[in-house]
Amino acid sequence: MKKVYALIIMAGMAMSLLANGFTWYSQADSRWKQNSLGKGTTSIGKSGCVLSCLSMLLNSEASNPRVTPDQLNTWLRRNGGYSGNLMRWEMPAKMFGEGLGFELESQINRTNDWDYLATELDKGNKVIVQVSGKRSHWVLVVKRDGPAHLASSYIVNDPGTSQYQNRTLAHWGGFKAARSYSGNWLDEDAFELTSNIFVDPVPEDEEFLYQLVNRSSPANVYVTLQNALEVPIHGYFLLGLFDKEDNFLEVVDYQYGYCDALSELDLIYEIEDITPVNEEGGDLRIIYSKYFSDMPSLHEALALPSPGLINYSEAITQ
């Protein structure tokens, strides 16, 4: 009998587990909020907004390993990165050597210089700004979405909240100082899946063998990824299972990969049980992370937009 395979195609919705497609850290995180900041008597939880913003940049730069605020704080304390509690803005870029990772490009101390901010973001830079108000607080501007002269156009990651919040500079009314950094950013533009995600189950004439021993049917998964950056990308490429409401459920397999600059990487995974994928709304996506976890942090990993899932697991016989 001739086998005709039905293709089940589920369009992948663009979804990022990262805040705005970029790493977010809270200075109030219990893992480091009590740590002393710099050479003074204050703590990261009270005054670590700049430190947290710089850690976001380090973790989102392709050339660096994973860096958290406590790790950066320790390195800066040992390497002259502070003047008292004040950050020496150029020092974090030297953490992994001169000319590697991100670099401080320029800085201004002018209120609401929208031309400067828009120009730096258009260059591909990320900008840490001191927001308006009596309190000295810094946030990371990750992108612009709207007219250059409107504070509401500038989307930020704010380290001052214990839970991530969607905010723009309009929350504070503007900014009064800025520091711009260049880098090869691991954001939603760094990767592209150049093929569908293909799910290839065991042949139908072998499936009964798994049924005989009361085991679920496995499958292989294939996908090709394009590195859009001019530097290599390496890390963990996790195969994540999502439900029909786009909730991340679990990591079903992973592969550590290295992808040269402007090159493609073929990823191959194994699924022990294809049943959840065949259930209504089950979806698979590739999640990039600098570290391995079977449940990666929602703010340190990037779920790549999928061009679609092609599942060959339902066979129709004629």
CATH class of the largest domain: Mainly Beta
- Report low-confidence residues grouped into runs of 5 or more: 1-16
Radius of gyration, Cα only, in angstroms?
23 Å
Tally of strands: 20
Structural class: alpha+beta
Compute the separation of the termini in Å.
6 Å
The biggest sheet, with number of strands, parallel, antiparallel or mixed sense and barrel status, is:
6 strands, mixed
Q: What is the quaternary state of this protein? A: single chain
| CATH fold node name of the largest domain | Immunoglobulin-like
Mean pLDDT: 86
The best one-word shape is elongated
User: How many structurally independent domains?
Assistant: 2
Strand content: 25-35%
Number of discrete helical segments: 6
Portion in helices: 10-25%
The run of helices and strands is EEHHHEEEHEEEEEEEHEEEEHEEEE
CATH architecture of the largest domain: Sandwich
